[in-house]
Amino acid sequence: MHLAYPAVLSALLFCTGLYGVLARRNVILVLMSVELMLNAVNLNLVAFDVWLSKAARDTLHSGQALTLFVIAVAAAEIGIGLAIVLAVYRNRGTSDIDKLRDTAETGDGPDGEGPETAAPTTAEKAEATA
Question: Which end of the chain is flanked by fewer CB atoms within 10 Å, N or C?
Answer without folding.
Answer: C
